[in-house]
Design brief:
By secondary structure, this protein is α+β, with helices and mostly antiparallel strands. The protein folds into two domains: 34-146, Arc Repressor Mutant, subunit A (Orthogonal Bundle); 158-314, Gcn5-related N-acetyltransferase (GNAT) (Aminopeptidase, 3-Layer(aba) Sandwich), CATH 3.40.630. It contains 13 helices and ten strands. The protein has helices at 3-7, 12-33, 43-51, 57-64, 68-80, 102-128, 133-146, 149-164, 175-189, 194-201, 203-208, 253-267, 282-291, and strands at residues 55-56, 84-88, 96-100, 166-169, 213-219, 222-233, 236-244, 272-277, 294-296, 309-314. The strands form two sheets. A seven-stranded mixed β-sheet has the order 4-5-6-7-8-10-9. This is Bifunctional helix-turn-helix transcriptional regulator/GNAT family N-acetyltransferase. Keywords: Acyltransferase, DNA-binding, Transcription, Transcription regulation, Transferase.
Length: 317
Amino acid sequence: MDFFDEVGPAALGSRLRRLTDTMTSQAAEVYDLYHLPFEPRWFPVFCTVAQEPGRHVGDIAERIGQTHAAVSQVVKDLAKHDLVVVQRGEADQRRSVVALSEKGAALWPALQQQTADVRQATEALLAETRHNLWLAIEEMEYALSRQSLGSRVKALRDERVTDEVRLLDYTPAHQPDFKRLNVEWIERYFRVEAADLKALDYPDEYILQRGGRILLAEYGGQVVGTCALLKMDDTSYELAKMAVSPTAQGLGIGFQLGQAAITQARALGARRLYLESNTKLKPALSLYHKLGFRKTVAGQPSPYERCNIQMELLLTS
């Protein structure tokens, strides 16, 4: 079985590269047919310069949808073969403008004729196919501009992970995991403080017996995430000790734990959730904002040196 038949659309990019390689190879044959000393990859840049001389490299890149670096390299190659000239712009001496050289201008009419013939041949080729590839590419580019392939894959992966994650209630057997996960992230950015060790070494005494809760997330048979609700008063809880293993970050597990903690806080009668964090923890703050938390200045002084931001979420029934 052919590799692409076996893998299917998952190898779309590789399949397109194979088609690109085929088209590029056959395009080189066309240039030989017309006796034009020209490389196919030069065509978009050269054609743009011929039609709109005096453009900056950045303008050309934007015009043909390529990177500035890629266009700069092609311009260097064209200049090396004496097909274009590069000069400082009159309006802005810091930017270079590109125009055809005498040799490039002499080549342009023959290239235009070849382009017309290639277009006619390509239109006939497209007419032979069941699906018009040119129109399909336009549709694909539009769809990817609306939502990238990476974000589409992430959404599907997160949905799958959500189904595979198990949220667990804390038991004494989970204390080592609870401490490990929290110490792991604290030591990555700060230092473990005495207030941390009280709750991490004795969670029953400092969290559960005082009316709090601890949640854990299990994925792939391992405890990879945790968070706690610390009771502040009859209607307020602190969301604390949230940690996700580096091996499981980016899978949406922190968001699942946060949502579960909010649901449990409501069930406990909470009307307000409070948390403390640090502004250097950008992903964590992004998560808290996604969960609905907002910055507050109404909190009490924190027992933690690392705390420099306090947030709250007002709960409604």
